[in-house]
Amino acid sequence: MPTTAPTANALADVTASDSTLRRFLHGLPGVDAVGLEARAASLGTRSIKTTAKAYAIDLAISMVDLTTLEGADTPGKVRALGAKAVLPDPTDRTAPATAAVCVYPDMVAVAKQAVAGSGVKVASVATAFPAGRAALEVKLADVRDAVAAGADEVDMVIDRGAFLAGKYLKVYDEIVAVKEACGGAARLKVIFETGELSTYDNIRRASWLGMLAGADFIKTSTGKVAVNATPANTLLMLEAVRDFRAQTGVQVGVKPAGGIRTSKDAIKFLVLVNETVGEDWLDNHWFRFGASSLLNDLLMQRQKLATGRYSGPDYVTVD
Amino acid sequence: MSDKTHKAHKAHKASRAQKAGGTHEAAADVEAVPAVTGDGTAPAAGAGPRVTVLKTYKLYVGGKFPRSESGRVYEVTDSEGNWLANAPRASRKDARDAVVAARKAFGGWSGATAYNRGQVLYRVAEMLEGRRHQFVREVADAEGLSEARAAGVVDATIDRWVWYAGWTDKIAQVTGGANPVAGPYFNLSSPEPTGVVAVLAPQESSFLGLVSVLAPVIATGNTAVLVASERAPLPALSLAEVLATSDVPGGVVNVLSGGTAELAAPLAAHQDVNAIDLAGADEQLAKELEVAAADNLKRVLRPQPVDYFATPGTDRMTAFLETKTVWHPTGSLGASGSSY
Lengths: 319, 340
Known about the structure:
The structure holds two protein chains of two kinds. Chain A is an alpha/beta fold. Chain A has helices spanning 8-14, 18-27, 33-43, 50-62, 75-86, 108-114, 136-148, 160-164, 168-182, 200-212, 231-248, 263-276, 294-307; strands at 64-67, 100-103, 121-126, 153-157, 187-191, 217-219, 253-255, 289-291. Chain A has one domain (8-307): TIM Barrel (Alpha-Beta Barrel), CATH 3.20.20. Chain A is 48% helix and 10% strand. The radius of gyration of chain A is 19 Å and the shape is globular. The termini of chain A are far apart. By secondary structure, chain B is of the alpha/beta class. In chain B, 44% of the residues are buried. Chains A and B meet through loops of A and helix 2 of B. Chain A: Keywords: Lyase, Schiff base. Chain A: One of its GO terms (cellular component) is cytoplasm. Chain A: Pathway: Carbohydrate degradation; 2-deoxy-D-ribose 1-phosphate degradation; D-glyceraldehyde 3-phosphate and acetaldehyde from 2-deoxy-alpha-D-ribose 1-phosphate: step 2/2.
């Protein structure tokens, strides 16, 4: 952090022009990559057992954004996913519902119907997901479409090309415009695609940029590239939201997405949350997992805790 | 290949003759070290005694050789109580990982053509033949046999493997077929692999018995989680090295060593294990495991007295096969009344 903590007012100034924004983002302290990875790895060695494990598994289930983002998505598949989000384990009604289902904009109406009355939210990716290579007008139309169909949350991708070219204000303006298009109706998750940002410094800058622009959530990745959520990049983003709240009083959520497949991984992320930002974020309003296969593993682990016998994929749905 | 085997053989004989202490793993290197005299008895003056390189035996899970997740090992001794090596003492989590690996491998292995499976298993026999001397030594140590008798056991084992390799594309003709039915249908039965099979290897016959229970399971397209003989696990752990260097896909066979009772309990209760062979369990343990296995209706093969030297018959293969029967209309019969 800069040694002299800027006030909220000072943060308002940094977005005044391209140069002030660049000066601010490049003024953020550099990331100690070795230290960051070591810290993330050491927190990953915590042993979470018995009752704590049961709590963590249920918490993780309630934080899942159950996702299907395939070209082959059909209304039937989305309805099945919605049913699973509402009642993840039909053999055990004590299993909590997931936080949301996450679909493409044209499937929002179907998803909305599938989870109606359950409290499960519908999230929609938008802004020419996953590449984000489209004109701003197209992206905004995409967002409005999703919101009009009833999306409770919008997952946008930033323009990585502009970000890497140093056009921070362009990225900023785009997020602001999308936020505006969401209106008050939908919470905005901003996807950085950390696997394409190439350095930890860039991830820290993108996190601050997103939060300055009004993101409700910052999200690691689309799940469509080789490197997705890792403990290290999630830890870095958790530090960013912690520092952002310390400076502005505004709390922002975090969503690692892609590559989290096992309960063990999920619990490691929950340890990161607890140790970095604390209990305030241990709630599905502030922390989410973007995942599809993770839920089945969580359910199998839950069954193991309940019965004492290892479960198998025959006892969860195929999706 | 044959040259190297020959070398190892000579060096091995030398080290047996002198009854030198320690393991024999270094035997193959003996001739390559100039400081050692031709018969391998003593190093040349000035050079210190060579420190033998001990082998760390490991588990075999999903095509990899991990240590036990628990970090535990136990001492393996020969029949006279002399220390041979430390073997990993696998935990129930290793068993769980092995089941996951076996499940993952099942689709590919059961979907491979029977002919292809036969080729792959024959390749294993080829690799076993190349390591014959290592296995003779390990079996002799494990079971207290003379070298000649151990060689007989190993030969029988390799032949057993070839025997089962030959069965892969023949078992369907023997146990399946076209059934006569009272209607215009083709009615065809074919044997299908059961799935993931937990195999408790026989306690006494550490190699021939092991292969006699393992080979039929994988020959028919199942994948296996093998619990090696508790007292004599080394031949099983070395067999894993052979499997890894032949064409058997990782995960088709997973080898665990450790307490049979400790590992068998979670495997018998595991919801994702489809069958269990209790060959290595005593009567009391077998009973408990059978009860645990009932929960997800596992197929259970009870322990029975077996002469592993005798030609086995198809029982161990059919024990882990399920019959799939397909009805298919023959279509309308021709005006001439012709039928199929």
